[in-house]
Amino acid sequence: MLSSIGVPGLILILIIALVVFGPSKLPEIGKAFGSSLKEFKKATGDIMSDDDNQNQKVESKNKNE
């Protein structure tokens, strides 16, 4: 999705963000976005590992029967 934006599009988005939020708020917004993304990735990883664990339990149960 982001690969189709290109460099000119990213520059335009950055300029718009500077105008809307101002240069003093951008680091705070970036930090908040980064921490939110980190939590989201951790949560999806936990969900995927839980699903894998359940699948392994079902498979081992089926093999034992």
Automatic annotation (TrEMBL):
The chain crosses the membrane at residues 6-23. Its main location: membrane. It is found in: Cell membrane. GO terms for molecular function: protein transmembrane transporter activity. InterPro entries: TatA/B/E, TatA/E. One of its GO terms (biological process) is protein transport by the Tat complex. GO terms for cellular component: TAT protein transport complex. It is a single-pass membrane protein. Residues 45-65 are annotated as: Disordered. Keywords: Cell membrane, Membrane, Protein transport, Translocation, Transmembrane, Transmembrane helix, Transport. Part of the twin-arginine translocation (Tat) system that transports large folded proteins containing a characteristic twin-arginine motif in their signal peptide across membranes. TatA could form the protein-conducting channel of the Tat system. HAMAP family: TatA_E. Forms a complex with TatC. Belongs to the TatA/E family. This is Sec-independent protein translocase protein TatA.
